Amino acid sequence: MGMPDFITPNTVDKASTLFIITKLLLAIGLLAAVVYGERIVVIHKSALIPTLSFLLSASVIYLIVTNLAVLPDMYDAAAGSQTIPKVFLGYLVIAIEAIAAFWILTKKWAQSQGLYLGMALIIIIMSDLAFTYYLNPYDTYNLLGHIFQVFSFAFIFKAIIDDALGMLYETNRTLARQREMLAEKNQQMLEADRLKDEFLANTNHELRTPLSAIIAFTEILLDERTGTLNEMQKDYLEEISDSGKELLGRINGFLDLSKIAAGKTVLYKEALNVYELINEVSSKMRPLFNQKSIILAVPRAGNPVKMWGDREKTGQILTNLLSNALKFTAPGGQVTVGIRQDDSTGVYISVADTGIGIEAVDQEKIFQPFQQVDGTTSRKYNGTGIGLALAKKLVDLQGGNIRVDSKINKGSTFTFMLPTGETEGKGKVS
Fold this sequence. Notes:
Heat Shock Protein 90; 11 strands
């Protein structure tokens, strides 16, 4: 009769019963989707609705198939037509679909998917009306009912496509707005950074001018051209001079960082004799090492080793690394400067100390501005946390790299590399 046996032998009455019950379930599902659509979307994320719908439909079909004998007949084989219960259920289905259509056309008329769903429901109603009028499965009303049903599915498919595209377009619009907001925020942050760097640069200049005068007048007083000083006065003036020079060095560090951040650093590159540079820097710093009873070991001059870089900036890198080693090495310790040349990359200069060492988790942080391993107010070692950050930025500006190898209580080794060949001429580096 058009359908194979399913659990029980197939009959027209069985097919009609399954047809009208599934239509009833479909109508109820459509009404629920229209009225509770927003809530169902939220629940659908957990796959609860599809699972429950499948279990309910499967259970109903199984109950119908296994209990067909106790259910009212939906088709009268003797008369060759539908029964009154079948027609009544057909009108019940139409009533439910009409409520759903009225709801969606009045509540969601402005939305294109609402219009398409409303049209689909109207066509489904026409289809079900045709089904209530047919006398046998092969007459014209039955054929029209199925044709209308195909058209209704087309409108439902159109509504689904429009809804999906609408969500996609809305998502794209949201992303575009977020990109614009992020770009605006980024521009604001860049402007804030620019103002901060400008403020730091101006402030550093204003601080450096009077501080330089203080240091200069202190040197004049120590020269005793203005009069003889007793030992206590000399000690006080030397303390003022040393503190002023230390503060001036820190201010210069801030100024250098500000220049680099603003892209105003100028490099004057030349071929540097590495041994000469190391001896020049170490000679200036050796009194500080001697004062703290720390051995400063530098390599003996051998065959000339050349690197390409800015003499002043490279000397500042080495000075900062030696100052860092001096700070964290206890009296009686040793700081060693090393050289290694690699023809394929460049010249490596290392500064190894026997100091306190650095935890692995802190080794990246120390190259960030104003970052220190011990950032508490009661820390043992003084400093602003810009020496290593400035060294890294100056190395990066010259096309090199810097790294640290360290173990707690076993010391640290800072190694920076600069190329041996000319990479760029004099000019601003951003």
